[in-house]
Amino acid sequence: MKKFVALLLVAVLLLACTACGAKKEEANTLVMATNAAFPPYEYVEGGKVVGIDAEIAAKIAEKLGMELKIEDVDFDTIIAGVQTGKYDIGMAGLTVTDERKEKVNFSTSYAKGIQAVIVAENSTYTSFEDFYTGFDADGNPAGVKEGIKIGVQQTTTGDIYSSSDPVDWGFGDANVVRYKTGNEAVAALKANKITAVIIDNEPAKSFVAANDGLKILEGAYTDEDYAIAVAKEDTELLEKINKALADLKADGTLDKIITKYIPAQ
């Protein structure tokens, strides 16, 4: 009986040590949530998530003395995952909106996010303003032309702004078609199921380069900044990330990473 008790105590101690080791490893890991279907910010190459956000996150983790772990998840689960502590940070070409700020905090900006409009190459539209019926006395859209359907990746900035009312320079929720990924939205455009796709400028360039018969309209739909999402209660991590970003900007690392994927024109 004594021998059994002794063996049981050893087993308990071993389990405790294993748990301690796991906690220590977890504490030294920076878990980043992203959606790797957003080139050149994040995409899969050789079975690995790469891109601007992945490289910047790796540099931040290095400065924090941590190991980076990237989780490729659905875009619309990133904010909630950071909010609940499932992930330490969210980096997926995230723009700061009032709705998102209610759930998480954001770092200082590390890149510019411009929403572009993709249409078929033979499209008669020359600007997103052509999608409206006209403009009121204040210069705001009066309505949306019949048959206009805007494709977006769900819950992205393109979705948020496109879904608003015309008076706010949106197209109305009924005229927006949501897709899980940008690729699916582009495929729908090629199949003539929608009028246009509104998505971030750099991914838009990648999609057009990879698909014949498409073009980007002149002029940005929106122009905003990208930032890193952090849980509201984790102010210490937010401060460390902002310090790391400031250092990476000061020594030219941020510009070097962005230029690697987006060469100056």
Provide the fold topology.
Layout (H helix, E strand, L loop, with lengths): L1 H26 L1 E6 L2 E2 L3 E4 L2 E3 L1 H12 L3 E6 L5 H6 L5 E2 L7 H4 L2 E3 L4 E10 L11 E4 L5 E4 L5 E4 L3 H6 L13 E4 L2 H9 L5 E5 H10 L3 E3 L5 E5 L2 E3 L3 H16 L2 H9 L4
Parallel strand pairs: 1-5, 1-6, 11-12, 11-13
Antiparallel strand pairs: 2-3, 3-4, 6-16, 7-16, 8-13, 8-14, 8-15, 9-10
Structural account:
With 265 residues, the protein is of the alpha/beta class. Strands 8, 11, 12, 13, 14 and 15 form a six-stranded mixed sheet that branches. Strands 5-1-6-16-7 form a five-stranded mixed sheet. A three-stranded antiparallel sheet has the order 2-3-4. The protein has two domains: 22-110 and 227-261, 3-Layer(aba) Sandwich (D-Maltodextrin-Binding Protein, domain 2); 113-224, Periplasmic binding protein-like II (D-Maltodextrin-Binding Protein, domain 2). Helices cover 37% and strands 26% of the residues. It is globular, with a radius of gyration of 22 Å. Residues 1-25 have low confidence and may be disordered. The protein is built from nine helices and 16 strands. It has helices spanning 2-27, 52-63, 78-83, 98-101, 157-162, 182-190, 201-210, 235-250, 253-261; strands at residues 29-34, 37-38, 42-45, 48-50, 67-72, 89-90, 104-106, 111-120, 132-135, 141-144, 150-153, 176-179, 196-200, 214-216, 222-226, 229-231. Helix 5 links the parallel strand 11 and strand 12.
